[in-house]
Structure prediction request, 61 residues.
Amino acid sequence: MNSLKGLGLFVVLAVATYAISKLANIYEVVLGATVLFVSVSSFTLAASFRRRRRDHRIVGD
Prediction:
């Protein structure tokens, strides 16, 4: 078993928490995180649609 498996996520969360605590304008950080999340989600959804269409073309549906 890898005892350090969750250490990377813990470090990322700790650094993010520290950075947020030092920032004066938290609303800009929240806005940036929201925009990033929506962008990544939209890209993933579009890639999923393209993959599904391609798979259906290959199968012959």
The two ends are 44 Å apart (CA to CA).
